[in-house]
Amino acid sequence: MAGPFGAESTTDEVLEGVDLHGKRVLVTGVSAGLGVETARTLAAHGAQVVGAARDLAKAQGATEAVRAQAANCGGLELVELDLASLASVRACADALVADGKPFDLIICNAGVMACPQGKTADGFETQFGTNHLGHFVLVNRIASLLNAGGRLVNLASSGHRISDVNLDDPNFERTPYTEFGAYGRSKTANILFAVEFDRRHKADGVRATAVHPGVILTELDRYMTPEARAQMTARLTASQPASSPASTYKSIPQGAATSVWSGIVAPAEAVGGRYCEDCQVAEVIDLREVRRGVRLYALDPDHAKALWAKSEEMVGERF
What we know:
Strand order of the largest sheet: 3-2-1-4-5-6-7-8
Number of domains: 1
Strand content: 5-15%
Low-confidence stretches: 239-247
Order of helices and strands: HEHEHHEHEHEHEHHHEEH
CATH architecture: 3-Layer(aba) Sandwich
Number of helices: 11
Mean pLDDT: 91
CATH topology: Rossmann fold
Structural class: alpha/beta
Oligomer: single chain
CATH superfamily: NAD(P)-binding Rossmann-like Domain
């Protein structure tokens, strides 16, 4: 495995000595937190970064320093993308395809977490629709732009261990809704999407992986109710050994490190179709009481194929 990296490694440590001049990268969710840091470190090492965001004005402000720092190395341009609207997703994808410039890496970083029950513009449950279906349509529509040797990185979460996807009731029409149950479904979907995308594209030299960035204080929890935030704190506390502090958070540079490690530094064959955390490929642990690793259902290839088919049915497109 590339480098002695772990939970405390930062983006700059992971990319130390790496020259990304000539590389082009798409990063979604560049208006705050992990997205801004991911764009910063890639551009600082010479990459041309296309940052996608729902609120372009907010993204302009959040990335002002990134663009200034990247002026003499890489570069950053912004495009509009609202993952909760397939019209916006398709418009963004169509514009990128029309532009015709290839990508070496796509990092699906944007998302929402544990929000109250709601629907996207297309009537999908908010978290599944935004975190999974929006990225599913975007990535598949621009897949032809990925160079041989390119990679897709989906930001998943340890939250996938909360719940598997429910292909019979993805929109909670018959299932009682819980904020974290829905979040878990969407994060499992992020992993399964990477598994099937990897299977479909590895013969062409394109690989896909999913990552858990760790627990970080970002704007991701902006939609959470106080009750949901208390649940998250309780889950985090329960996940630590008895000798550990009540909560363990990563810094934003530490949180974004696994994204750039798996997308750039790690051997493609090692991370393709896998789930990574703490700048390592995670162990498959199918025991509910163990609070690390990846659950077997999230890597199941037949499950991944079934999710792909259901996703195509939901969005009305075949890829």
